[in-house]
Design a protein that fits this description.
By secondary structure, the protein is an alpha/beta fold. It is built from 11 helices and 14 strands. The protein starts with a strand and ends with a helix.
Length: about 280
């Protein structure tokens, strides 16, 4: 079950909870359990900000969070922060089109799907989107990709050069993990990005310096909240920064070893209400 890594100064009341989506808040069926929804609502009733902090674009916000009317959200691993009530972009730390194209062209030499996030949406060429089962055998991930990407009959190059949009994130799924490792080294060498992963065979690239943790702290400062008053929950490499920076960093039992090692607390899995249990332990009165 849950594992506590060190003692905490629990005198500080939690005022903001940053939550990764996939593998954390959402279970394996990409749903939010009833116990978790109750915990989120109780936290809101106590004046705590619930902040989805995800690699997804804003169009991937789960209905369960729309239903409880969350106000703030951090998307694309920290590239964008929105006031959802005002439909206002508060933070935008994006690639230029030229920078994004440089990364995409490096990716062309590998057997990997390409997609980009721009303007709050994901875009993927038809040649990848129509055959996404070749890049992952996880049905839920296939469905998520197909439901949150706009299909392009033309190329990403053509779309980006004509759209006028900046790019929040570049994402690739690799068939071969050795190719993924080689590509990661090439992307790092550009000085444009430091790739992270939410899944075992993907690379997610935001602008160098962008992270969930940085965006989380920036939002907290705007709200007058100290780091010690933040709890963050995550499971994957792209969650490391926010779990490390939060006053209480929580790793999921189903998470990678690296995040468990730096977390203050290891809660249960995403299929066993791990987020709800952490909120009940640290945040609810």
């Amino acid at each position: 079950m849950e594992t506590e890594r060190k003692e905490h100064d629990t005198m500080k009341k939690i005022k903001l909870i940053a939550l990764d989506m996939d593998g954390t808040l959402l279970n394996s069926e990409k749903k939010c359990s009833e116990r978790t929804k109750r915990a989120l609502i109780k936290a809101q009733e106590q004046g705590i900000w619930i902040v989805p902090t995800t690699g997804r674009a804003i169009n991937g916000l789960p209905q369960e969070l729309k239903d409880i009317n969350v106000r703030y959200g951090i998307f694309c691993n920290g590239a964008s922060c929105y006031d959802l009530h005002k439909d206002m972009l508060m933070v935008a730390d994006h690639f230029t089109v030229e920078e994004a194209l440089k990364l995409l062209h490096i990716g062309d030499k590998y057997d990997a799907s390409h997609d980009v996030y721009a303007g709050g949406c994901g875009y993927c060429e038809a040649k990848y989107l129509d055959h996404f089962e070749e890049y992952t055998n996880d049905i839920e991930i296939q469905n998520l990709i197909r439901n949150t990407r706009k299909r392009l009959d033309g190329s990403l190059d053509e779309f980006l050069l004509s759209s006028g949009l900046t790019v929040e994130k570049v994402n690739m799924f690799f068939k071969d993990l050795d190719e993924r490792a080689a590509a990661e080294k090439e992307f790092l060498a550009t000085g444009l990005t430091e790739p992270v992963s939410a899944l075992y065979n993907n690379l997610e690239m935001g602008k160098l310096g962008v992270s969930k943790g940085k965006a989380m702290v920036q939002l907290a400062e705007k709200l007058g909240i100290e780091r010690e008053e933040i709890m963050a929950c995550g499971d994957a490499k792209n969650d490391l920064s926010m779990v490390k920076l939060a006053g209480i960093g929580v790793a999921m039992k189903n998470g990678i070893d690296e995040i468990k090692e730096i977390a203050d607390y290891v809660t249960d899995t995403n299929d066993c209400d791990g987020v709800a249990k952490a909120i009940e332990k640290f945040a609810l009165e």
